[in-house]
Amino acid sequence: MRPSVLLLATLLLAPVGALFATEPSKPNIVFLLADDLGGSDLHGDGHP
Predict the structure, then answer these.
(1) Three-class SS of the chain
(2) At 17, phi and psi to the nearest 5?
(3) What pLDDT digit, counting tens, does each position of 1-48 carry?
(4) Whether this model's pTM surpasses 0.85
(5) Rounded-to-integer distance, Cα 13 and Cα 10, Å
(6) Distance from C-alpha of 46 to C-alpha of 48, rounded to nearest angstrom
(7) Closest CA to 12 of 20, 4, 21
(8) What is the pLDDT of residue 36?
C-alpha cells in the first residue's frame, strides 16, 4: 500500500474512535521545570 493512501486512511478513520468513547479522559499535562536556564541557553541558531 502506498504511504499516501495509508496516511489518508489514517487521517480519515482516526476521528471515528472518538465517536465510541464512553467518558472523557483527564488531559495529559507535562510540566517542565528548568531552574538554571540563562538568557542564551535556548538559542536555536547553532551558537553554543
Answers:
(1) CCHHHHHHHHHHHCCHHHHCCCCCCCCCCCCCCCCCCCCCCCCCCCCC
(2) -65, -30
(3) 577 888 888 888 877 777 776 777 788 899 888 777 777 777 666 655
(4) no
(5) 5
(6) 6
(7) 4
(8) 78
Cα distance between residue 14 and residue 20, in whole Å: 11
Instruction: Tell me which residue has cell 528548568.
Output: 34
Distance CA 18, CA 8 (A): 18
Looking at residue 11, its pLDDT comes to 84
In angstroms, the CA 41 to CA 35 distance is 12
- Which residue type occupies 14? A
C-alpha cell at 42: 535556548
